[in-house]
Queue: 2 jobs
Job 1
Amino acid sequence: MSIGEALPRPDGRIKVTGQAKYTADQRLDGALFVVLVGSPVPAGTIRQIDTHEAESVPGVVRVLTVDDMPRFANVTAPSAITLLPMQDTTIRHHGQAIAIVAAERLEQAEQAARLVRADIEVSPFVAQSEGAAVIATENLYAPAEFSKGDIARGSSSAAHRHEADYLQPSRHHNPMEPSAVQAVWDGDELTIFDTTQHGYNVQAVLSSAFGIRPEQVRVICHHTGGGFGCKGFVWPHELLAAAAARVLQRPIKLVLSRAQMYSMVGYQPDMRHHMLLGADADGRLSALSHDVENVTSIAEQFVEHATSASQGVYASPAIQTKQKVRHANVNHPTAMRAPWEGPGLWGLDSAIDEMAHLVGMDPLDFRLANYAETDPATGKPWSSKKLREAYAEGARLFGWYDRPREPVRDGPWLLGSGMATSSMGCFRFPSVARVRLNASGRATIETGCHDIGTGTLTIFPQIAADVLGLSLDQVSLSMGDTALPKGGPTYGSSSTMGVGASVLYAARSVRAQLAELAGVPDSQAELADGRIRRSGSDERGQSIVELMRQAGRAELRADGEFSLPGGAPFNANGEGSDVAISTFGAIFVEVAVDPELGLLRLRRAVGSYSAGRIINPRTARAQMIGGIIWGWGMAAMEGTHHEPTLGRWLSRDLAGVAVPVNADIPSDIQIHFVDEFDAHASPLGAKGIGELGATGVAAAVANAVFAATGKRVRSLPITPAKLVMEGASNA
Ligand code: MOS
């Protein structure tokens, strides 16, 4: 039995020794190096681009401008940005690509890029904070407005009322591997190595943009060096790179610089959560209102559905939510690890904590008093939910009810504890996988998915090994290539359910073929150690290698398909079925604050989750710890400042934008999973966990800061300036 075993990652060694080949590591014969030139201003019109000086640099082959580019047809949202640069002369944000330099060597292209002279008629621009908020109307994954019950009555008649704004800044994904493309055309056939979380999305967008069939575009991405969402969309550089290869009639290689990762791919948008809560004297919510506004690019809408948290976590007779956007001259935002509930729970669980204090209840007791027995928005029963157990075990591991109720001093530090609910909805996508069992008893899984670091390379072989009675080293996974069966995307915490289920189905079909060869009814076949026998019998069974040899079969193969109701391309939270699907948990943190210097430190954390069946406890635990670290970054460190007078990101590197490093994270992080099987979410019983751990953390930290200092910080990140307390003394 290998599902449920804490198996190590088979790809660990090649990744830490540098043998894993990422996009930029591929070598295409005769490739030109391509560098994009970004706009120096946030808004304007290009009058002319002087490429003369740039083209005189030795080795430079050509500088492409809007005049040289093919016109792209049919680029459709929501999987890609639709207003592409270099299709007209309009500049919509700082850093937008305005020219492409191609040279024999990278150094030549970089030098020439600095010599491209753009004559731009500069226009007034809308800074990130200046756009007017309007109800979102485009690219919606859920209605922009939701209402249930009577909010006005629920809040005006409430014994307790809390209303506040909670802010969070734009944040960039900062994956270790910057986005890169290598592209080569052969007639109308394009092969593209691309840094992506979903090769088939790149295939669909590029084929429609170039007016060719999807089969004429092959997208290869064997390893993805982190993504966190910024490699899920198709961004302009991918289309521009493919276009450059076509115009130049040469293979090309493009690697975005770290600075370009700030303006040429997406980021999580700056958000404001307006919360209004009403509660009765016993601490039961009577009203819950949550308005979100997020910044978006000047002419397209990206909607961060953060109000989903307030529709799905706590019981309230009246719930009202609104999604608004603020257009500005910024590059287009996108989903970032733990979209929707991740930002939403910052607003919601901060406000819930404030209300618990107003009512005079323990914050966990207050959450239990408002426990949602059914889905708050739809009233549907949950597919499975063991949040009560998760709360209880988390509280026990943390010592929540034994915590000091007053701040404790430790030298210069004030210690405080806080908690929050974690929750993530359930995104599912269709997926196909193929399993082949060869004559030597080794299996290969083929599905064009990716591993962005979450452990899919471990758990998909683990699932097939489990079904076929093989060891993990007898199963390999071929992935990251659109020439393979169409696996689901590697985002939305969806792969275990979608791709995992397709692997399960394919492996079961191969198992059925083996059972037939063995003359054993499929339902009674037991496979272990490379042998098949009738379950319950005491015979040793037959070797599957021998069985295939006798039958003259060099290979057994089968495809497995995970599909959604009605053949839908996407399903959120079990929509269209009679259950609501979601994941839950609780995060408890102890922080230390130095009130004189304003320093904030994480001392310890406990995360306890109700998230369906856990396929691999080791990779799952790593996901949750990673999520908590991600949440700490959101809480205490991260924010990309958009400078309102220059209209651009102020810092565009990892020195000017803080992210957590090892020294910021204590070793004392405990993870617990409640034993659970969710048959509705997937036939594996598993749900998604990749993003759940990141949710709730920022609120838990702010709630702990309040416990330590009595200060409510309602804007992220919680930096020293917000914590320095006047008159504080360590004496
Ligand atoms: Mo994640 S934001 O769904 O890659």
Note: The mean pLDDT is 96.
Job 2
Amino acid sequence: MTAIGIHDIAIATGHHVLELDDLAERLGVDPAKYHVGIGQDAFSVPAPDEDIVTMGAAAAKEIIDRHGVEGIRTVLFATESGVDQSKAAGVFVHGLLGLPQSVRVVELKQACYGGTAAVQLALGIVARAPHERVLVIAADVARYDVDTAAEPTQGAGAAAVLVTADPDLIEIEPAAGVFTADVDDFWRPNDRSTALVDGRLSVTAYVDAFVGAWDDLVAQGGPGYEDIVRWVHHQPFTKMAIKAHRKLAQHVGQPFDDAELALGFTYNKQTGNTYTASIWIALAALLDLDDELDGQRIAMFSYGSGSVGELLTGIVRPGYRAHRREGRVRSLLEARVPLTVDAYRELHAAGAATSEDTERPRVTTAPYRFAGVRGGARRYEPTTQD
Ligand code: COA
């Protein structure tokens, strides 16, 4: 049977960064609460001319530059911070990237889980038509009200994932564990630009979904715990993954050391929560930084509040190291422009979506920018006109 899975992953993030040390100082909080207690160091903040479309397009551009458009007939855009209630964000990306018209584009939503649903759909499309390649884009801006417990767990970022037959990076195995429970741990009503979250409930809901998805994976004939050499998890904050994994290890009666998850936290500790993109950014970090994955089985746990969980496993393709982009992600993270707490809060206050006509200042140096709203419609453009 043809192997189907992840051929490439590209990452984008916001133009700015807020160091959590600065937020801790402003709020009179011990910085160790952020670095150790929740396991985050900083978070990305979009410039006024950035949003999910510009970040998603930047990540997707890298994929198209590397692999061309041949065989791409489907673009799936997953987000929970959509910019329009009707038009899929992926249609803007399609236009910016100049993709062929013989392409279907749609947006998917189920909190942070949407990107994994998109990858599952992509795997199905490629299984039916192995000559096709599916471009999955997951992009989000995590925004909570200032002066709430969730404020330090904001973030922004995007991942573009190319799903193909005979992939360079990971063959995804057919068995998956899934779990759904109706729970109000996190949500964003239509009249709000910031999410509402019951942080403590989100921890127990995440843990329940992880253990439930594991049990379902076992029932589906998936691999044993001891056959999985590495794990990556959705990371609303990295400590969440540790808390959940401790419970799973207890559940299956296996030893677990927190340090086992450290490499997969490397990028997310810097971007903050990127919702749908979080698990793919974690996976990119693992593939970039772990040298011993040739032919090894890894597990990927995706969680979307509300709530849906899914546990996938895959075999890392021998030779994956030849396709690493580690330098690229590090330089993206290092290039972010630091904000003071006042400047971040000013951007936060101005960050709500609007249908009023506006012009956005030129700030971002990413390939595409949000120019503003004209005639009630959002306008995007390349950052450098050539
Ligand atoms: N040094 C080290 N650790 C410290 C500390 C210090 N000085 N002060 C506190 N901590 C630890 C606490 O013990 C706690 O650890 P534990 O959870 O292992 O017990 C952790 O830091 C957080 O402290 P807590 O008081 O619970 O934080 P909080 O009330 O400020 O809220 C979150 C933390 C994560 C719940 C909150 O940021 C949140 O709701 N974030 C959003 C979560 C989310 O997005 N959920 C939905 C998606 S799944």
Note: The mean pLDDT is 97.
